[in-house]
Each structure stands twice: as structure tokens, then as C-alpha cells.
Amino acid sequence: QVQFVESGGGLVQPGGSLRLSCAASGFAFSVRSMGWYRQAPGKQRELLAGITTAGVTYYADSQKGRFTISRDNRRSMVYLQMNNLKPEDTAVYYCNFYRTVGGIRYDYWGQGTQVTVSS
User: Fold this and answer.
1) How many angstroms separate the Cα of 22 from the Cα of each of 10, 50, 70, 72, 116?
2) Which of 35, 45, 48, 115 could cross-link 9 (Cys pair, CB 3.0–4.6 Å)?
């Protein structure tokens, strides 16, 4: 059974930093690209960053330069380092991978971790 456990969220002041962690299990982690998403109240879930099995990273244009995604295949972990946080970064953050079977995409999510940026 696929399972993600996200952690590392919390309350941080504007300009601060957080490092989110995601512990993955139940699938072959090392052969899957992974992503971090977030969902703010009243908004759609959005992709922030992704990392391939080879460690190639990609970022949403709005996050370039502030967020860094990384992974540890030995520990089946994926991380999101977030710097210079802003109030608009307040959201629930999720790690993700997806499979495509017969042309249908299946997404897998954890329970998320809340990030609140406020003074």
C-alpha cells in the first residue's frame, strides 16, 4: 500500500525557512519521479517542484530560487527546502507521485503538512 508521511510544517515568520520531509513506502521509490504540491484555502492544488529518478529537478516559475527539492533513495525520502517564506506560501503541502495506466493518471497523496507564514 502506497503511503506518504509528510512532516516539517509549522508556523514561521515571513522571511523564514522550513524544510519539509516526506517518508514514502509501499512502492519502488527509487524508480519514481516525485513531486511537492500545495493547496491554499479556496485554491486549486498546485505543483511546486519535482525530481526525477536521476535527480533532475524542475520548479514552478513562481518558486524558482526559493524552494529546493531533493531526495534520498536509500531512505525513500523526499524533501522540500523553503526559504524566504511569504504569507502567500501558507497552505497544506503534499508530496506525490503518479502512475499512468491505460492512459489514466492515478495520483498518490499523503495527508499533507500545514505551513503557515505569519508575523
Assistant:
1) 15, 13, 11, 10, 18
2) 115
Q: How many residues does the chain have?
A: 119
Task: Give, rounded to a whole angstrom, the gap between the first and last alpha carbons of the chain.
Answer: 40
Q: How far is CA 43 from the centre of its chain?
A: 17
Residue found under cell 493547496 = 39
Inter-residue contact 114 to 8 (CB < 8 Å): no
Q: Are 89 and 39 in contact (CB under 8 A)?
A: no
Sign of CA dihedral 70, 82, 50, 20: positive
CA gap 42, 22 in Å, rounded = 24
For 57-111, what is each residue's pLDDT tens digit? 999 987 778 999 999 999 999 999 999 999 999 999 999 998 888 999 999 999 9
Interacting residues of 64 by C-beta distance below 8 A, sequence separation 6+: none
At 42, the amino acid letter reads: G
